[in-house]
Amino acid sequence: MLTVELLPAGYGDAVLVTYGSAATPHRLLVDGGQARTFPALAARLRSFNGPVDLLVVTHVDTDHIGGAVRLLESGALAGRLGGIWFNGYVHLERFSDLLGPIHGERLTKRIIDLGLPWNDGWPDPVPPGIGGPVVVRGAPPVLALAGGATATVLSPTPQKLADLLPVWRQVVEAAGLREGVTATEEAAPVVVAPGLLGDLTLSELAGLSTPADTAEANGSSIAFVFEFEGVRLLLGADAHPDALVAGLGHLAGADGKVRLDACKLPHHGSKGNVSRALVDLLDCPRWMISTNGRRFHHPDDVALARVITTRTNPELVWNYRSDRFLAFTAAHPPATSGYTVAVPDEGAEGITVRLAD
Questions:
Q1: I need a surface site. Which of 20, 42, 275, 346 has the fewest CB within 10 A?
Q2: What architecture (CATH level 2) is domain 2-183+191-356?
Q3: How do strand 142-144 and strand 150-155 relate by DSSP bridges?
Q4: Which residues contact 344 (CB under 8 A, 6 or more apart)?
């Protein structure tokens, strides 16, 4: 059994992977969404008994870490966590000495107070008793997870972590990770009205040249291929496309493709992260989109066009029946554009994908 739940996390990520058997399930939680969407995450966690074997906090953007902070401050729910992967300042400083540590970071403090296994199993541990940085040095490392699953980690590289250091204080404060500091929203981008570009076909959209994402926090994302009993899932966080392509290249078969059963599109389907090179590398039938489309207006049409035009009848899975979903499917109807969709029922939020029975 393997299911992937794209929980309602606003324009962020909260992904719950459940695998094993119904009698003895294992659970992996990747990010906690926005702080304001934490009640939905808390309700889902309260709906079942047993632990969450591992929480992966991919990076310090507020739409990924806000709900994770609330979770670690939630008492009984926090006590059900079996361990955590998260690159804090103590891990970043292994690659540079540009800044002094920021004391009182809320997530770091709660991890230590709870005594959670932190980056357990990663080399180059940080005294006292903290595992080393979650980082890719050369070939992607493969880590054993509970229940016989594995995680092949693709991002970040040491350089991506070092790049974050000069802006660490700014990013940490923006995410509300210091006591007494309220999280602030990232600045919304300037969006060009679709009509100004004309009515482009999917092929024309896919062929547009777009700059790659260079945001330091996104580059520090922990992204990995989760595998259980032959089923593969790419959890791309907000990772940069160059890191993903380089890491995935080590997993390519004789045909030059990396076989996956599902891919959670990096950075909520941003054109700066879903590059043509990344899409071309993957042999994947199912592409998952985690965002309500607000503020940043993800997923981008260009990113979706790249997926659709390089695949045979791919399925796009949305966790919100968002304005972006309605606009894209109206402009490019699935029935005539070579793709299918899975979307929550009218009025519902969040979606579950079953990858194995």
A1: 346
A2: 4-Layer Sandwich (3.60)
A3: antiparallel
A4: 318, 319, 320, 321, 350, 351
To which residue do tokens 């595992």 refer?
131
Locate 291 and state its tokens.
């965002």
- pLDDT tens across 264-283, in order? 999 999 999 999 999 999 99
Coil/strand/helix, residue 288: strand
Q: Measure Cα distances from 76 to 42, 47, 80, 108, 313 in Å.
A: 11, 13, 7, 18, 44
The model's pTM is 0.94
Q: Given the structure tokens 């035009």, which residue do they identify? A: 309
pLDDT of residue 189: 61
Token pair for residue 59?
Answer: 């990076």
CA 274 vs. chain centroid, Å, equals 13
Reported as half-sphere exposure (CB side, CA atoms, 13 A), residue 169 has a value of 7
Beta bridge partners of 259: 283
Q: What residues does each domain of the chain span? A: 2-183+191-356
